[in-house]
């Protein structure tokens, strides 16, 4: 089984490495109990580049000795102007698996630029990002994420977002949504709620 860490490298520094390390440690505890996790700081190359890069670390837990593939590329943010809420049956993406078959099928079912996945009418995540909704006073993030992302964890630790239950019927009470992940900070990619195609009824 293969897993991914997508890490922001900006102006010579790997960002939020301790949170990435915690998530990787959790993978080892679950899928390789008794084996010690590996230190990311020793695995990642000592890069000297300026600018913003996405470092993609893929590691295979099915081999006797864990193997790592590392790629890095200058970061080019996606243009997302529309979102669609899509319903899904429950599935597990609590770890950052390389296999994204289920998520990719949901993306293909939509004509929007990206999706918001709803399970049992509860808002979870987008295809590649967690969500934070602005209600005019504070940023709120769903308490039912598929994946507890690195940026989401950082923002919660800093008290910049709060976790709460958000259902489809709650969406119109918000003003806007911020898409967040390891590469995208709070407020860097925002859409008005009117840019979200919301089902009129649950199902």
UniProtKB/TrEMBL annotation:
<keyword id="KW-0456">Lyase</keyword>
<dbReference type="InterPro" id="IPR001544">
    <property type="entry name" value="Aminotrans_IV"/>
</dbReference>
<dbReference type="InterPro" id="IPR036038">
    <property type="entry name" value="Aminotransferase-like"/>
</dbReference>
<dbReference type="Pfam" id="PF01063">
    <property type="entry name" value="Aminotran_4"/>
</dbReference>
<dbReference type="InterPro" id="IPR043132">
    <property type="entry name" value="BCAT-like_C"/>
</dbReference>
<dbReference type="GO" id="GO:0016829">
    <property type="term" value="F:lyase activity"/>
</dbReference>
<dbReference type="InterPro" id="IPR043131">
    <property type="entry name" value="BCAT-like_N"/>
</dbReference>
<protein>
    <submittedName>
        <fullName>4-amino-4-deoxychorismate lyase</fullName>
    </submittedName>
</protein>
């Amino acid at each position: 089984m293969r897993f991914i860490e997508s890490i922001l490298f900006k102006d010579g520094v790997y960002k939020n490495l301790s949170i990435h390390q915690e998530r990787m440690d959790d993978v080892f505890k679950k899928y390789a109990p008794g084996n010690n996790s590996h230190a990311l700081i020793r695995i990642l190359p000592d890069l000297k580049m300026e600018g913003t890069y996405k470092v993609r670390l893929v590691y295979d837990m099915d081999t006797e000795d864990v193997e790592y593939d590392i790629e890095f590329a200058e970061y080019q943010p996606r243009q997302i102007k529309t979102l669609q809420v899509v319903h899904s049956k429950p599935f597990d993406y609590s770890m950052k698996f390389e296999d994204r078959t289920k998520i990719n099928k949901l993306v293909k079912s939509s004509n929007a630029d990206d999706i918001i996945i709803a399970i049992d009418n509860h808002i979870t995540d987008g295809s590649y990002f967690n969500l934070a909704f602005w209600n005019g006073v504070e940023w709120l993030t769903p308490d039912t994420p598929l994946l507890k992302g690195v940026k989401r964890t950082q923002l919660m630790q800093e008290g910049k977002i709060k976790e709460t239950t958000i259902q489809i019927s709650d969406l119109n009470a918000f003003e806007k949504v911020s898409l967040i992940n390891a590469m995208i900070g709070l407020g860097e990619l925002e859409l008005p709620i009117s840019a979200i195609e919301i089902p009129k009824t649950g199902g």
